[in-house]
Design brief:
Layout lengths: L7 E6 L11 H20 L4 E6 L27 E4 L10 H7 L4 E7 L4 H11 L3 E10 L3 H10 L5 H11 L1
Parallel strand pairs: 1-2, 1-4, 2-3, 4-5
Helix pairs in contact: 1-5
Amino acid sequence: MAPQSIKPALLIIDVQKIYLPSIAQRDKDIGYYFINHLIKLFRDNNLPVIRIYHTNAVTGPKPGTDEFEYPEAVMIKPEDPRIIKTYSDSFNKTDLMKLLKEKETNTVFLCGQSAVGCVIATFIGAMNNDLKPFIVKDAIMCHNTDYSRNMEMMFNAVSLDAVKVMVEAAV
């Protein structure tokens, strides 16, 4: 059986203003740098860039508020598909899988926050939906730099250069 070619999408998870104060500025700067390079890579290759937002009916943040939005430092666009979730796993009770099927995606590259929460939950959710997930090194953040680095090691995060090779081979 011949190997299946990858059909990738980029998932940017929960880089919302409300959650950013708990992250060290250096980690934010590094994360934004790599996330923006990923966005450019995917756009240059006409591949999906999907923004994911977290909310909770009790604790928020509420859609439409400033704290719900991504900072201007992240180069998302209004036309990038948007998924709003209420669970850590971006697939749980959302239309994410439907959107990925419409785009014929079988591989997802994950970046954003929290490295120890929603990113890992979405990684597992992707596996549970028979997708091939990859965490991108230096493009995940959380309240503790060491935790992010540990997640990268535990989940075999791939470098930006490796993502570039895989994306360019896919198109």
